[in-house]
Specification:
Length: about 100
């Protein structure tokens, strides 16, 4: 019973903090509109409307396989740029 009572209290505290945070953000948007800072107001509105989008770091390997490990992705990018730079250097040497 004590746990449930404390859980309700914590839930109310969190809900009040979220409400005050949202009120502050809305107040900031209104102030931006009053100050004729429309671009900032639209940015704030967009950030309010945006939902959570998880970010995944994936990369395709040389054989078109999907790489998920951070070290594999780093080495793939390293080899990609090395290949890119060496091909550009060869092209400039051929032009000269």
């Amino acid at each position: 019973m004590e746990y449930k009572r404390l859980q309700k209290i914590a839930h109310k505290i969190c809900k009040n903090r979220i409400r005050t945070h949202m009120d502050n953000r809305i107040r900031d948007i209104e102030e931006n509109i009053k100050d004729k800072q429309i671009r900032n107001a639209y940015k704030e509105v967009g950030s309010l409307k945006a939902s959570f989008q998880p970010h995944m770091d994936l990369c395709r390997g040389t054989n078109n396989e999907i790489l998920t490990k951070e070290e594999e992705i780093k080495t793939r990018w390293k080899t990609y740029f090395q290949d890119l730079l060496t091909s550009q250097q060869q092209q400039t040497k051929a032009i000269l």
